[in-house]
Amino acid sequence: MPLHATDVGRRVVVRSRVPGRGASGGPALTDVVGVLELFNDSKIVVRRRDGSVMSVTKDTVVRAHRVPDTPPGRAGVGLRLPATELQRIADAGWPAPVTAPLGQWLLRAAGGFTGRANSVSVHGSPGCAFDEALERVHAFYSTRDLPPMAQVVIGTDDDAAFHAAGWVTKPGSHSGAVVQVAALRTALRSAHSDTTAVSVRADVDPGWLRLYGRATDVDPAVVARVVAGPEQVALARIGDPARAIGRMVVTGEWAGMSAVEVAPEHRRQGLARQVVDRLLDWAASRGARWCYLQTMAHNEAALRLYAPYGFSTHHTYRYLVPGGD
């Protein structure tokens, strides 16, 4: 086995035996590719691109070796990632306090704070008939005094199935949300602003919350659980009181940027770029290779802000609700 403890932090592939028989009649095998996090006498631990962790006992390992690092400057790698996989990564980056799996779907509730944390994230199979899945969605949100809502990638079979069942685009959600991605190394080439005024912390403070418009009239404890819930998160701010804020989360090799806001009286001074530059640098220092962001399709100011960093549209999604609700 060519791997050693000194390979921790490098990309590796580990092939191991799993219960059952393979298609050829021999032992069933599985491969895991990711960053080596632990290597000792008994096990190997690898973190996949989506942030999930796989632990393999050494006595089941058939082959394990280092693999070349994926060139972080290849934006196309991020663009080729299936929308369903990127949606799961984004789910982990914006964790609702209450979740329940529905097959591969994810039911989420956060007291009404943001659509992402209060809708069923639709990707893959619900593990049951579609009509039954819709009944379980209704039941989940009804018991929490929330309206049933689904986050669905536009143009997919799921999108068509929901519409066929009578679900419609949520009123007021305009033309849906755009998910854009960029290779982090490419984005950093455009990060030239002075970020010395940008402070970063992992917890939510009242000054940050006051500038975050979506937190208005929402229980601060709920906001904090969603915004500061992930293991690796950075909440950036400029000034006290805050003149500009932003958020970045790292999930495996992916970073997710959100909540970039500037106080109205301080706009057009380059503060948003300072926050973005600082957060991109923070994400790179945590091992992220690609970055995603989500914004409304009609938010032209946000799209102009991110365009110089090389962000390209990966997919779009919308929120659907039962027709007549």
Main sheet record:
10 strands, mixed
Q: What's the CATH architecture name of the largest domain?
A: 3-Layer(aba) Sandwich
Distance from N terminus to C terminus (CA atoms, Å) equals: 59 Å
Mean pLDDT: 89
Q: What fraction, in percent, of the residue positions are helical?
A: 10-25%
Shape: globular
Number of domains: 3
Name of the level-1 CATH class of the largest domain: Alpha Beta
Question: What is the name of the CATH superfamily of the largest domain?
Answer: Gcn5-related N-acetyltransferase (GNAT)
- Strand residues, percent: 25-35%
Number of helices: 9
Using DSSP, what is the number of strands?
A: 17
Q: Order of SSEs, N→C?
A: EEEEEHHEEEHEHEEHEHHEEEHEHE
Return residue spans where pLDDT drops below 50 for at least 5 consecutive residues. 71-75
Structural class by SSE content: alpha+beta
Radius of gyration (CA) equals 21 Å
What does this structure look like?
The chain is of the alpha+beta class and 325 residues long. The chain has 3 domains: 5-66, SH3 type barrels, CATH 2.30.30; 82-174, no CATH class; 179-314, 3-Layer(aba) Sandwich (Aminopeptidase). 24% of the residues lie in helices and 34% in strands. The strands form 3 sheets. Strands 8, 9, 10, 11, 12, 13, 14, 15, 16 and 17 form a 10-stranded mixed beta sheet that branches.
Task: Map the helices and strands.
Layout: E1 11-21, E2 27-39, E3 43-47, E4 53-57, E5 61-66, H1 75-80, H2 83-93, E6 98-102, E7 105-109, E8 120-121, H3 130-142, E9 150-153, H4 157-164, E10 167-169, E11 177-183, H5 184-188, E12 198-201, H6 206-211, H7 220-227, E13 233-238, E14 244-251, E15 254-262, H8 271-285, E16 290-296, H9 300-306, E17 312-322
Parallel strand pairs: 8-9, 15-16
Antiparallel strand pairs: 1-2, 1-5, 2-3, 3-4, 6-7, 9-17, 10-17, 11-16, 11-17, 12-13, 13-14, 14-15
